[in-house]
Amino acid sequence: MTHTILEPLSEDQWFLESQELRSFVATVREISASTVDDRTQTLARLEPYFQELLAQQEWLPEKFAQVNPESRMGGGIGQWLLYRAKDRSLSVFSLVIPPGSTTPVHDHLTWGLIGLYKGNQEETVYRRVDSGDAEGHAQLQVTEVRLLQPGDIYRLLPSDGDIHAVKTTSQSASVSIHLLGNDTGCVWRHQFIPESQSVKCFRSGYSNAPCQEEEEKEYVQVR
Asked: What is the pLDDT of residues 150-182, one digit of tens each?
């Protein structure tokens, strides 16, 4: 797949005024800049700070914990952008999955941390086992199924653990916080259909913020 080249923004974008979030992002930028050659170290150093953010239950307003019937991911899933860097190299967003709904099987194409803020989830992690040479074809293998509770964190470091699907198992919507090293909602990623061993490109978008690239005519070859 030809990755989307995202144009820089005029400035960092904040969709939530929160001292907790601003302090966390400042820490992320400092640590990620000093560990650019070792993202395993980046994630290890960031995880305690991310744990602290998840433990604070007052900083995320209710409007960023709502489902979205118009979701591009389907199932009423809300993807609410909280922050993105001017150079599109960092984003923080909440993902809200209604009870019983499941995300498509998808990847992220970057390092990151995901933590459960509210509700309960079941995460199914996959590994791609085909060569990727056949257009539109992908063969996946389940490597792990995890039951998640508030405060649980998992790491993304492609290709390790980068492909997954998540289902809400609680009676109320689950809310997870995502810290990722790209502008996740605006890049072209992979959506996998394990039942048919197929794959297609998709751009998940955000529920509250546009992607300026959405009107571009791009040719994307799925591998």
From this structure: 999 999 999 888 999 999 999 999 999 999 999
Supply the pTM of this predicted model.
0.94
Residue 2: is its pLDDT beyond 90? no
Sheet of 13-14, strands arranged across:
13-14, 78-84, 91-97, 174-180, 112-118, 153-156
Q: What is the DSSP string of 55-121?
A: H--SSS-GGGG---TT-TTSTT-EEEEEEE-TTSS-EEEEEEE-TT-BPPEE--SS-EEEEEEES-E
CA–CA dist 198, 138 (Å, integer): 5
CB 86 within 8 A of CB 12: yes
pLDDT at res. 126: 97
- What's the CA gap between 214 and 8, in Å, rounded? 14
- Give me the phi and psi of 13, to 5 degrees please: -115, 125
